[in-house]
Amino acid sequence: MIIFFYFVCIYVIILSHRGGYMKIWTKVHIKDKNKDVETIAKSLTNYLYGYGPILDLSRKYKIFPQDRAEIDKYTADRIAGLLMLYLSKDYNRINDIVNKYNIDAAELNNIVPEIEGYIEK
């Protein structure tokens, strides 16, 4: 039994090594504050959640303001992280995130990008 366990461990270690290092999914909190990233992340969070279905759901299910603030903070943190990766040109990490969270759900298959803002005529 111990020998079998040993071989399983060796097999897992061999499979998990890519190019001499082991990839481990981790969450990192960035300590260096970037005010531009912070402002953009907060603005995008308000843009995404300020109005529309999220506001309607908050009212419908009587989501408390502190719970909504927690959801907004989580979203702003994630947006800030993506912006920091983009600014540092860490496209491999962005690609890893896209691959990990790419969900195949029928309601998400027909995404139509929507944008708003000042349009010059």
SS elements, strand count = 2
Q: How many DSSP helices?
A: 5
The helix/strand order is HEEHHHH
Q: Runs with pLDDT <50, length 5+?
A: 1-18
Question: How much of the polypeptide forms β-strand, as a percent range?
Answer: under 5%
Rough outline = globular
Give the CA-CA distance, first to last residue. 75 Å
The profile of the biggest β sheet is: 2 strands, antiparallel
Helicity level = 55-70%
Average residue-wise pLDDT:
76
How would you describe the overall organization of this protein?
By secondary structure, this protein is mainly alpha-helical. The protein has five helices and two strands. A two-stranded antiparallel sheet has the order 1-2. The N terminus is likely disordered.
Provide a concise account of the structure shown.
By secondary structure, the chain is mostly helical. 60% of the residues lie in helices and 3% in strands. A hairpin with a 2-residue loop joins strand 1 and strand 2.
Outline the secondary-structure elements.
Elements lengths: L1 H15 E2 L2 E2 L12 H15 L3 H8 L4 H23 L3 H11 L20
Antiparallel strand pairs: 1-2
Helix pairs in contact: 2-4
Fill in the keyword field for this structure.
two-stranded antiparallel ribbon; globular; 60% helix; 121 residues
